[in-house]
Amino acid sequence: MQCRLLRGLAGALLTLLCMGLLSLRYHSGQSPQAVQEAPWQSPPSPLSPELQLQDVFIAVKTTRTFHHSRLELLLDTWVSRTREQTFVFTDSPDEGLQERLGSHLVVTNCSAEHTHPALSCKMAAEFDTFLASGLRWFCHVDDDNYVNPRALLKLLKTFPQTRDVYLGRPSLNRPIRASEPRPHNRTRLVQFWFATGGAGFCINRKLALKMAPWASGPRFVETSALIRLPDDCTVGYIVECKLGGHLQLSPLFHSHLETLQLLGAAQLPEQVSFPPLSPLSGYSLVPTAGGQMNPEPLGKDWAEASGCPSLPQAALGTLASALWWTVPGTASERWASPGLDGSRQ
């Protein structure tokens, strides 16, 4: 009887010993890396690839009246280099534009009038199309702006993807004020900064998604009507008053409200957007298809038309060469500006 009891105790001890050894072997066999990579302790995902121009959604707002006088110049110049990233939003069909732009011509149901509701209607269409695209940056410009895509990309690369970014240039030297309706027929005075649409502005996707409750679908027009301000002001209102964000001011955006006479020649190629452009007498800011132009008179005429005739001759030459986007296969191709990668195109 005693022998059986001893054998039973020995067997139990042996079993416990084996289980302990197996457990020790299992835990010691796990590398520190394996323990650290448990699902709830996994390291953050790698950073997204470096920003490319293909990641940027450029929206151009126009109207039927300016299809020929403004838009054709853009299509022959900077848009010809950014065709895959650029979408044109208008209020009327146009067979000629449809042939050139295809699905990148967006005909909205918005009015052709230059009113707050009509402008906000187009901005809403731009915003929704951007959200559906999945791209990383939304940039808006008007149909009379010249955009330097290389400088735009360089600027956007300076912002980390973890930040909410609302980037542009205000047209006022102070915040704008608006009356925000409140319950019980009350109003609240709010003030905020906004980037003028005439110079162009950009918003990254992280911020755009947060704006959706006030900016997607019919909500943008409703928000604009609420504060009785146009589209670019409404963007600033949503960012600053609804989300607590702030406008990131950049002096590289330029509108018709300013001139370039304070810029040095070396600074011109670094600017992102330029004041309104239109064909001048005998010249354009940039050559169109088949054009053979001398950069010096081109720069001179454009400078005078833009209100800055005092630009020195060196600056005029730099301006003309820096902004000279050629159309491949035309006589103007001999004039080449720096490409998006810094090389000569």
From TrEMBL:
Keyword Cell membrane among UniProt keywords: no
Gene3D superfamilies for this protein: 3.90.550.50
Domain Fringe-like glycosyltransferase: 50-274
Topology relative to the membrane: Single-pass membrane protein; Single-pass type II membrane protein
Keywords: Glycosyltransferase, Membrane, Signal, Signal-anchor, Transferase, Transmembrane, Transmembrane helix
Subcellular location: Endomembrane system; Membrane
Gene Ontology CC: one annotated term: membrane
Transmembrane helix listed as a keyword: yes
Signal sequence extent: 1-29
UniProt GO MF annotations: glycosyltransferase activity
InterPro entries: Fringe-like_glycosylTrfase
Family: Belongs to the glycosyltransferase 31 family.
Protein name: MFNG O-fucosylpeptide 3-beta-N-acetylglucosaminyltransferase
Organism: Suricata suricatta (Meerkat)
Origin organism lineage: Eukaryota, Metazoa, Chordata, Craniata, Vertebrata
Gene: MFNG
